[in-house]
Amino acid sequence: MRENPKEHYNSLADSDLTHLPPWTLRGRGWLALYRLRPAQVGALLLVRYVSSPVGPYDELMWVEAPVVTPVGGRLSIRRIVVSTAASVTWGRRNWAIPKAQAAFDWSVPGQVRVTDTGGKPYVHLAFHRSGPALPVNAAWLPRAWRTIAQPALNGGPEWKLTTIGGTAHASPAHLTVLHAVGLAPKLPERRPLLGVGFSGVRLHFPEPARWPEPTLEQ
């Protein structure tokens, strides 16, 4: 019998149930958008969550779109590191997001250094905002543009499809890659199409849909 979502969630310890979706996260962040090919873009996102179901944490991710999936072209998170083990565990369990843990050093104003768990340098970024901030809402985008499609982390055929929502205030900004290892090919040499800073972020991650839809086999 194929395990359905409710059975999967019920199999987790009762003490962990508060970490299941939906999640609401609040914080601030920066985005740099790059052209990869004529019909594909990549986005580097740096986020500091001040609150989430698993507490505050930092996050750095590389996203590409559109990526070919069984339901058409969608967003897909290719690489992502976060600052806490709880975020790793529940991001992987809830949405098949391929999170790994890293350390974020914010000691230099306007910069962050990210190192892996062994202390090896991963990314060095500089960031700053400029200009007025305007309100933005994810609901203004088509549903397909804000649906994250992630393949099963165990290599299986299933996909998790998460249509995110949220609001923030956006302003012009720069997110500059000073050094990067393993994040994206030659990223420090690429010039971003645009940079955006976000404040007052309120992000909603619902329970994902699944493809193919789970069925109960007798």
Summarize the structure.
The protein is mainly beta and 218 residues long.
Question: Layout of SSEs?
Answer:
Elements: H1 5-10, E1 23-37, E2 40-51, E3 57-69, E4 72-82, H2 85-95, E5 99-105, E6 111-116, E7 121-129, E8 134-137, E9 147-151, E10 159-163, E11 165-180, E12 194-205, E13 209-211
Parallel strand pairs: 4-5
Antiparallel strand pairs: 1-2, 1-12, 2-3, 3-4, 5-6, 6-7, 7-11, 8-11, 9-10, 10-13, 11-12
Task: Walk me through this protein's architecture.
- This protein is mainly beta and 218 residues long.
- It has one domain: Acetoacetate decarboxylase-like, CATH 2.40.400.10.
- The protein has 2 helices and 13 strands; from the N terminus they run H-E-E-E-E-H-E-E-E-E-E-E-E-E-E.
- The protein has helices at residues 5-10, 85-95, and strands at residues 23-37, 40-51, 57-69, 72-82, 99-105, 111-116, 121-129, 134-137, 147-151, 159-163, 165-180, 194-205, 209-211.
- The protein has a 9-stranded mixed barrel with strand order 1-2-3-4-5-6-7-11-12.
- A hairpin with a 2-residue loop joins strand 1 and strand 2.
- The longest helix has 11 residues, at 85-95.
- The radius of gyration is 18 Å and the shape is globular.
The tally of domains stands at 1
Number of strands: 13
Give a short account of the largest sheet. Answer: 9 strands, mixed, barrel
- What overall form do the CA principal axes indicate? globular
Quote the distance from N terminus to C terminus. Answer: 7 Å
CATH fold node name: Acetoacetate decarboxylase-like
The total of helices stands at 2
CATH architecture type: Beta Barrel
Structural class: mainly beta
